């Protein structure tokens, strides 16, 4: 009899099985599925215990080497050797796989144990009577049990992951300790190196003084002794007792001792070279370790573990942060001396030696945390390159010095500021562009030189604009989020934003320009000292308004210009601005705000100097018909002088003015008539029938007026807007009359 692809084998209750194989009989074999009989036989068979056996606890069984098991054991009990089918049948009877720590998701290797362990609460060693309670899963029950099993497996896997994470945490702590030890060794070696260098420098200075004193004399006999003045503290770390006189501390050194000292000096130099090599190896190993861990020099582990056992790394600022590096020594005197010596070597025609001395001292000042001296040295280095007209060296040294390990922010800032001042001193455009691009690379991502980067970007944008590449110039300048620069002065910020707006308008990107304009506060522009920025801003806003035909906004912008002190002092500009204010308020579509602004402008006393504009505003503010022919004749000359009416767009605005006059006349007719013939309506508007009907329809659609036209009768009915209550009351009255 077959069951899910598995064939029945001899029963567990045969005498041979009981006597020879040592199997435990089951009381009621009819209630136990055939698959479980075979499985119990298989697990209890001692001849195949090397491939399938009970676990030590007897609550599960283990399959080792699945390939060998499928080939040797499965065919003895079933008609196949498919391990996957065997596992699927186990799942159908509620068996689940027991996960092991070595098989966790965080460990992947070839040495992972190749065995499977399965368990079921009713499948236990020496308890065959429980098998009758094992049932095969079907339908919903199977899916529910499967979900329960999946949850258990997930919980087991999570516990495994937690354990693995704890192991990783321990390993990372060990690496941290190693990291600290390496840093300690590196610092100690660096200190030894500095002491050795200091000793060598003092010995060299001593020998230089000695040979300088003897340069004027001829070669002395070997027996001749040289008298040298040496202070007691000039020779450090020497164990020899040097005899000195009590009066002037004079030491006598014969020639043989001098040669002996030369040998010791060379030997000390070799020792220092070995120390330098050891330091380089230590720094390389340390860098590899920090890179592999994703840490900086000052890296801390958060001891508070997150829920689930996951590790959190807390990175602290590195040696470049402001104020984090404590100055260990002041190199001001040595810096001034080295810079003075550098100038002398430059005059003597030895620029390479001059630069070498600057680089050597720069390393010492940087490691000692002397930001002021380091900044002076960096500035001197790039200044020397500039004096030599070696602009390539300027660019290379800017990149090199800014990326030095542990370079100080204050020093970088001073160097960048000096380099920015060199941009205008470059001999040609190619060198200028290279220097600007180099400085932008140096300042990228460094918030402490964000102002200098912004200025460089503005320079680069200006150069691109001069080349005629407006789009690229705009994109370069729009990259700056200048409003977030806390260290920049407000005036300079607004100047940058205005430049962004100007370039945006130059490429006709009106939407982006409108967005950028929101970054400028109107309160800031109202201050007297910012009047120049205010004028620039509102002139740019007028261009946006002209593009959008936002006549009311343009009127407000001209009003802001009209209120500026410099405009009031210039009568021509003052009059011209007032003309634009009056014309654009007349061009603006009818609204409550437009009416209020029109009355406010009409009351301006300075409008008496512009009688035709005053008369136009007066007619628009009263309920009297205004003839377009009269307006056209009155403003014929003004049309030629107003910039708003120039070009193709200017003609369109002239037509808009005519529409405003027609709309005003329709509103006047609406206020005087309840019913009017269409013929009379056309005569009053001084338009042809099509134009009058079009103007009338637009105002009805816009709900500026409420009216109906009876085309067959040629009558227009004007009626006032009624409240909802009035309409309902009228409807109720009529309903009662019908009943």
TrEMBL record:
Q: Name one GO cellular component term.
A: cytoplasm
UniProt KW keywords: Coiled coil, DNA-binding, Nucleus, Proteasome, Transcription, Transcription regulation
- TM region(s), chain numbering: none
Entry coiled-coil feature ranges: 265-292
Q: Which residues form the PCI domain?
A: 553-723
Query: Does the keyword section mention Coiled coil?
Result: yes
Q: Quote one Gene Ontology molecular function term.
A: sequence-specific DNA binding
SUPFAM superfamilies tied to this protein: Winged helix' DNA-binding domain
What is its subcellular localisation? Nucleus
Q: Which protein family is it in?
A: Belongs to the HSF family.
The identity of this protein, by name, is PCI domain-containing protein
Taxonomic source organism: Rozella allomycis (strain CSF55)
- Which taxonomic lineage is given here? Eukaryota, Fungi, Fungi incertae sedis, Cryptomycota, Cryptomycota incertae sedis
